[in-house]
Write a structure and sequence with these properties.
Oligomer: single chain
Shape: globular
Order of helices and strands: EEHEHEHEHHHHHHHHEEHEEHHH
Strand content: 5-15%
Largest sheet: 5 strands, mixed
Length: 401
């Protein structure tokens, strides 16, 4: 008899529901079952493992909350499966008719979900390899550090505008081996600069305050942390498993950070393909044309994962398309890639990819289409080209343009 544990993870506890089969009336079961709540401490972990589950079903609650519970379960030999938030929400409401969302209802729904879909692998999120999980943790950390730095730098520049205006708009970048950016390092007293000494001796500003120097110290500290993370990322990306991916990324001109973001989301590419390792294509009747139409399901899943798959919404005569779901980090990275490597002609990729995307972008902008819409469309097409190139290098060829 298999023991299935549904776990709904909160910030400092989990709600648990252990089942050996699916209840005939989940709604009634919800009101009668004595749900467990375990705290995130040694006793809570001990009590959870004493339930002796065979399989635990959870939602991917970030990389912070679910990581603790998932790791202890895996170490105890428990198989951990993940269910997407959207899928669970639909299943709980439409299939189980459970009451308004709460932790216990989610725990029950997660356990029931296994019994209905245990044989359908695509119903569960892929459990990523340890290196991929680590890459994702690192890119999320970099994104966090970027968000933390921006307001500090902006505040420092605003103060420098009246304290030392000659350098208020200087763009100072990190040096080799993680050396602090010259401007911020000089302001923090960590680096020497004859140029800034001379400028400051003749400044029309009112003088640098201790507050700005403290801001500069914070910026230098954050930049050093970024350097350490980037070094670990580069080391992980040199793994032979990612070599073919990096070959393709080079064609697109993706930087190291973008490469890490993409790999964290799409590796391995085989996860988007069918059981034969080929792109999944099905023939279905077109909703409007009523004619047989190809549906490129693998490509669609790939675009969805990158946050570059538009979804159609319609009501009456009103129709609109918008991008929903997928990775916000990937979506932002692709948009920035379009903005820096496709849109500016002086830095545009000098290959067929740059030519194809650049010409389409120029044509659509010349036609007067909104720039934001154009960039989103180019990012979506870039994702399609990326999928084609990745699968091609893995020896498969049947792709749409």
């Amino acid at each position: 008899m298999i023991r299935i544990l549904g776990l709904d993870v909160s910030k400092s506890s989990v709600s648990a529901c252990l089942l050996t089969d699916k209840p005939e009336d989940p709604r009634q079961f919800y009101y009668e079952y004595p749900f467990n709540c375990f705290s995130a401490n040694a006793q809570g972990i001990k009590d959870l493992l004493e339930l002796k589950p065979d399989i635990a079903i959870m939602e991917p609650t970030g990389v912070n909350y679910s990581k603790l519970w998932g790791t202890h379960l895996a170490r105890a030999g428990v198989e951990v499966r993940l269910v997407g938030h959207k899928e669970l929400r639909s299943y709980r409401a439409n299939h189980l008719a459970l009451p308004d969302k709460d932790d216990d209802a989610d725990a029950l729904a997660l356990a029931c979900y296994y019994f209905d879909y245990c044989t359908e692998k695509r119903r569960f999120l892929q459990i990523r390899e340890r290196e991929i999980v680590r890459i994702r943790e690192l890119v999320l950390r970099l994104a966090h550090l970027n968000r933390v730095q921006s307001p500090i730098i902006n505040r420092a520049r605003q103060d420098l505008a009246w304290q030392f205006p000659e350098v208020a708009r200087v763009k100072s970048r990190r040096g080799e081996a993680g050396l602090a950016p010259l401007l911020w390092g000089w302001l923090a007293g960590e680096r020497k600069s004859t140029r800034y000494d001379q400028l400051y001796s003749q400044t029309v500003g009112l003088g640098i305050t201790d507050t700005v120097r403290e801001h500069a110290k914070r910026i230098c500290s954050l930049q050093r942390e970024e350097h350490v993370i980037e070094g670990e990322l580069r080391k992980i990306l040199t793994d032979s498993r990612f070599e073919s991916y990096r070959q393709v990324f080079k064609k697109f001109g993706f930087g190291a950070r973008v490469q890490a973001v993409l790999i964290s989301q799409i590796y391995p590419i085989e996860g988007f393909l069918d059981t034969n390792g080929k792109p999944e294509v099905r023939i279905r009747q077109g909703r409007n044309s009523k004619k047989p139409t190809k549906r490129h399901l693998s490509l669609r899943r790939f675009q969805k994962a990158l946050g570059a798959a538009p979804s159609l919404e319609s009501s009456g005569d009103r129709k609109k398309s918008k991008v929903v779901g997928g990775s916000d980090l990937c979506r932002k990275s692709l948009w920035q890639w379009v903005y820096t490597r496709i849109e500016p002609k002086r830095s545009r990729l000098k290959n067929e990819i740059g030519k194809t995307l650049g010409e389409q972008l120029d044509t659509e902008k010349a036609a007067g289409r909104p720039v934001r819409l154009v960039r989103n469309r180019i990012a979506a097409k870039g994702a399609r080209l990326l999928f084609r190139e990745l699968v091609k290098i893995h020896a498969f060829r049947d792709f749409p343009d």
